[in-house]
Task: structure prediction
Amino acid sequence: MKIKEIRAVRVNVPIVAERTPARRPAWTQTFRQATPLSRYPESAGQGPSGWGEVWVKAVAEDGTVGLGVTAHGRPVAAVVEDHLGPLLVGQDCLATEKCWDLLTRATRSYGTQGLASYAISAIDLALWDLKGKLLDQPVYSLLGGPVREKTFCYATGNDTDWQLELGFQAVKLARPYGPVHGETGLRGTEELIARTRELIGEERDLMLDCWMAYDVDYTVRLAERLRPYRLKWLEEYLIPDDLEGYRAVRERLPWMTLTSGEHHYGTAPFYQLVQSRCLDVLQPDIHWVGGLTACVHLAHLAEAAGISVILHGGANDQFGLHFTCATPNAPWAEFYLGSPPGVALEETLSVARRVVPAQSSVAPAPGAGFGLDVEQAQITPYFV
Result:
């Protein structure tokens, strides 16, 4: 079976209308996070691009459709429509490894990492979804079958009391301060960690996500300050390009579990980090790093080095769950929780990508491909 068409599309599946009143605004509405832009106060509140998501539709000769999704809308959609999609027309639908290799090689001239990696990710996921549908198998079966019935799931976000009420047994916080805040920031972050540790108790795990906001010195100073609170790990403390910085942090914090990866693209940066033993856990995003195929490559690389893989946002949709379910060295999944406390999760999630953790565990949906709940009428072209 050959690939007939690959297009950038929109999937118009509404979020379930909220029925339960919120107890208070979500932390995302009141909490200002430290980012690489914190150096410039006038821009410090800026987050990701705001381009929104873009889906990819892969169509086989018999009309079967596979879907994948990524971020950074219009620019990524243009890469799909103008270059990468047409490149794969006529290729074997089941040849996901070959197609991934074609895509990565085709983008070398303008940079496989960055926006091209987002486009490759969405196409790769769509092809895996298509393969599963053509073979009438869930993607996790195509990867070798499940290695566990359920996966432990932790919550990311700063509404910790709500996370505990939902049954999460491990939590990860966003950071409010960075190097520009100096000693005041160090003290404020310590106060946040101390309050959270007291709230969750000694038996639950606590992590801190630094989202590229720190430098080497600030990372080391903060880690030393937080040592009494027994963080399970410190995450993405440097910008992804600073390999020497990652090496320096590893040397200065040999006792600290260090993790990163959501803003590393392709497999080469991870090879360098693994080779240098800079990280204890790799955290690629399946929608950004190069898709499922890239994540499988990284899992094998990590397994050889005795390192775990815990996807960024891996419990927030079926794409990540299928990989995690079938990967022995992917023991945990992350659920990003940004909806208001008091509102049931079922009321806050898109039907197409809904995952509702129960008592800190998740499992992939049944069905062929990724088991997405999308009707053909809900798919429209990205560019009109």
